[in-house]
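Friendly challenge for the regulars: who can give me the structure tokens for this chain first? No prize, just bragging rights.
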Amino acid sequence: MKIISSFSSTKFTILSFVLFVGIANILTGQTLNLTLEQCREKALAHNKMLQVAQAQQESAISTRKASFTQFFPRVNAIGSYTHINKSLEYTMNLPIAEFLQGLEASNPAIVTDPFYATLVGMHNQGYLPDEYQVSIGEENNWILDVTLTQPIFTGGKIINQYKISKAAEKVTDANLKKTGNELIYQTDEAYWRLVDVSAKYALAKDYQALVQTLLSQVQNAYDVGVTTQNELLKVQVKLNEAELMSFKAQNGVHLATMALNQIIGDPLESSIVLPDTIFDVPYVPYDSTKVQEYIENRPEVLILKQGLEIQQLLTKIAQSNYYPNLALQASVNYINPNPYDSFEANFGQNWQVGVVAQWEIFDFNARKHTISAAKHQQQSAQLILEQSKELFALEINQSELQYREAMKRIQLSEKSVDQAEENLRVTQNRFKEGMCKSSDVLEAQVSWLNAKTELIEAQTEMYTKRANLDKVLSL
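First reply, four minutes later:
Bragging rights claimed.
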């Protein structure tokens, strides 16, 4: 593709935009003197969709930071308090008396044994009762457990999830750039639309003045009887048309101003005064050998690339389900009543360390089908990326050709304006000399109006096409 390197031979006066002085008096509300660059800055500062893209970018950054924390251990604490209204009561029967009597019956001499005598004395005094009552549990029960879990091996899930979060962040970065490029193009388009209708309004006023001058001349001729009433009526009709054209152009200025105000975030009724003269915008030649580089740097391509990378990572995560998950666990706990001290009403402490492994052995090929689905999604993302690159290359060629066409249109329109102005001058002179009719002058004026209108449209179209070319090249 050949890119034009310069257009120094083309003149861009845009009808000497002194025409625009006083346009603010047409509109109501606050008056703003704005250049194109100022409009861009205001749009970038106030546009809601750009703010949405910025919020999405901040969200992606936070998500990426949260994903990074998965590499580090998790510490969880669990505490509980339980109040028990009734403790567990258990009565144990111990036939001590029958036991002692059995010993005495089997060996009467045992009564002289000091140990036997001690047992009998303890039984008689109640130290060895026949029943024992055991109470289990306390009214107030406390448990506090602190657990640390550190992943050791997850088959690559954690690192791939982190890479996905980084890719998602890059997507929001590219989307922010894309939104900014589109906003700048919308601003340029609205700005040049205002330039277009403002120039047409000024041209309509000039055309109205020309017809008014002709009407005065024909009226004088009619008053002295050298022309017909029909000729006078023709000019009056054209003057009415010129007034209507001027009125419509004035409304067009108002609507175009409101459209630009909406984009730049100003009140809709605010007036905008364009610069007295809009200078040539320097042309920066585009290197045709770097078209592929332009394509690779487009935000849309960057978004598709990151989408493909995410699909590749999702495939790896699906494959990681075939591997076991290993984690280190350590915990310390405090329990009251204390199981390590006969359940006394105090806190007992213990700790433990271990490795936990989980491995899914059989799942009826669910993992296989999940991997297959992920691979097909990856293939789809690859094909979309390749097709998009082809379409973007076509778009760049189309935009560049449209830009060249717009510049060629300006050159031809300037020649037409020169010819129309000369034709109008000659026709007016011939009319003054009585060598042609007023209808010939009206026809020459319409040709002049059409040629001027064509030049205005060609000039504003060139700047619009230039803005579109900048957008597709992401400059």
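The chain has ten helices and eight strands. The chain has a mean pLDDT of 86. Your move, everyone else.
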